[in-house]
Amino acid sequence: MGLEHVKQVFEKYGRDDPMYAVLTDHSRRGGRWDPDEFFARGRQEIDAVMRYLEANAILPPLSRALDFGCGVGRLSQALADRFGQVTGVDISSTMIAAAQSHNQHRDRVEYLMNDVPSLAIFPERSFDLVYSNITLQHIPPAPELAYVAEFVRVLRDDGVALFQMRIGKRVAPGSLAAWWYRMRRERLRRVWQRLRGRIPYEMHYVSRAAVEETVAAAGGRIVNVTDMSRYGNGVSLRFAVRRA
């Protein structure tokens, strides 16, 4: 499972209905998101993130931030209210084009397309903050974990990576469970989403142990974990990571 389907889906929706693809409120489908409200949601989210970082004494320097899975730039624009320089990356060229059209911060915000399972476009220790929300969960497990390792690599020594992931059971590669996971997560979900008239994006899960092992192997340490699940059942976790 690579990134081809992820790119295909978000190229289409970046062209046809980008704000709905980022915040999938079915009442806003068909270009019915008000841009002011859409970007205000981003400011509210980043305000809450900054309060969280301060409350946990892990607020990094406010020099350079990375918005991973930037979409239309909802969070990149909000981060630019706090950080001197912001870079948004996305797998979709159409999303990047939409983000550039909404950039209110000129050259303090740049948007780059990245459609490979690495962040090799950035040197080591590039960012004070790496932030990602409701993005990694759409990426298959192998590249998803590869990105987590890259978050650690591009962090500065006093930086923080803050990212949300869907958490499930560990699945051994090549096993029957792995085959069934792929069938459900890749093929059946796409069909079900299309039948419901919804975006056929995938929803992927990795084990918490796999995240912990990936962070440690990359030279990082998890300093805080927050349950972001709607029902508090640990299905969606946000990890705060620093260099070891």
Word description of this protein:
With 244 residues, the protein is of the alpha/beta class. It has one domain: Rossmann fold (3-Layer(aba) Sandwich), CATH 3.40.50.150. Helices cover 40% and strands 20% of the residues. It has helices spanning 4-16, 18-22, 35-55, 74-79, 93-101, 141-153, 176-195, 208-217; strands at 64-68, 85-90, 109-113, 127-132, 155-166, 220-227, 236-243. It has a seven-stranded mixed beta sheet with strand order 3-2-1-4-5-7-6, sandwiched between helices. The two termini are 30 Å apart.
Can you lay out the helices and strands and say which pair or pack?
Elements: H1 4-16, H2 18-22, H3 35-55, E1 64-68, H4 74-79, E2 85-90, H5 93-101, E3 109-113, E4 127-132, H6 141-153, E5 155-166, H7 176-195, H8 208-217, E6 220-227, E7 236-243
Parallel strand pairs: 1-2, 1-4, 2-3, 4-5
Antiparallel strand pairs: 5-7, 6-7
Helix pairs in contact: 1-5, 6-8
